[in-house]
Structures are given as structure tokens and as C-alpha cells.
């Protein structure tokens, strides 16, 4: 039930973005950690709610984990840096663990 509430809240945040926001796609590396098991590293594709630099944005994405770890889906928050990099922290719903990501995107 807590997962349903968390995903509903994150969906509401993603849908409530201002109409002038310009979403963008990002590709990068992610690390899933916590939960008493070893960290897993993977490659991710994510959607950022805005492409402006020096802004906090909503993010959602999918990750393929190396070493036969399968796929993950996450929602969270990211900060767009000035150099086209986005650093994010999100919750990965399949393994139920936090996820840190560094992604390259077309950030203005």
C-alpha cells in the first residue's frame, strides 16, 4: 500500500509540471543501493520534466542492470547542472531500493 501511495504522489508531481516546461530525454549510468544487498550498476534512459540548467526537475526512467540484474523502473527528482549533466535520486519500484543516477541530456 505504501508503494501505491508513493507512486501516486510521484505521478501527481510529474503531471503537475508547468505548461512552459520543455521535457527532455537523458541517458546515463545508475546505481541502485540499500536494502542490505550489494549495489547494482546499470545504464538508464530517463525523461526529465524540464531542460533548463540549474533547476530541480522531476524524473522517471528505466534501467538495465549489468550482470544479469534485469530491468528497473523509477521515479524521483534530479538537478540539471550547467554542463549538460543531470544528477538524480529516485526510488526504483521493482527492487524497492533508492537509485542514484548521472545522465547526459540536452540541457540549455
Layout of helices and strands:
Elements: H1 2-15, E1 24-32, E2 40-48, E3 55-65, E4 70-80, E5 85-92, E6 97-105
Antiparallel strand pairs: 1-2, 1-6, 2-3, 3-4, 4-5, 5-6
Structure characterization notes:
- The chain is mainly beta.
- The chain has one domain.
- It is built from one helix and six strands; from the N terminus they run αββββββ.
- The protein has a six-stranded antiparallel β-barrel with strand order 1-2-3-4-5-6.
- The radius of gyration is 13 Å and the shape is globular.
- The mean pLDDT is 87.
Helix percent reads 10-25%
Helix segment count?
1
**What is the overall shape?**
globular
The count of domains is 1
> Biggest sheet, open or closed, and with what strands and sense?
6 strands, antiparallel, barrel
Strand content: over 45%
Structural class: mainly beta
Total number of β-strand segments? 6
Question: How would you spell out the order of helices and strands?
Answer: HEEEEEE
Short description, anyone?
The chain is mostly beta strands.
Search tags:
108 residues; mainly beta; six-stranded antiparallel barrel; globular
Amino acid at each position: 500500500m505504501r508503494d501505491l501511495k508513493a507512486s501516486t504522489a510521484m505521478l501527481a508531481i510529474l503531471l503537475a509540471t508547468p505548461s512552459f516546461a520543455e521535457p527532455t530525454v537523458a541517458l546515463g549510468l545508475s546505481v541502485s543501493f540499500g536494502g542490505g544487498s550489494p549495489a547494482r550498476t546499470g545504464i538508464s534512459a530517463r525523461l526529465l520534466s524540464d531542460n533548463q540548467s540549474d533547476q530541480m526537475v522531476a524524473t522517471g526512467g528505466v534501467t538495465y542492470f549489468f550482470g544479469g540484474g534485469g530491468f528497473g523502473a523509477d521515479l524521483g527528482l534530479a538537478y540539471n547542472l550547467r554542463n549538460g549533466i543531470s544528477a538524480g535520486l529516485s526510488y526504483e519500484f521493482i527492487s524497492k531500493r533508492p537509485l542514484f543516477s548521472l545522465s547526459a541530456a540536452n540541457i540549455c
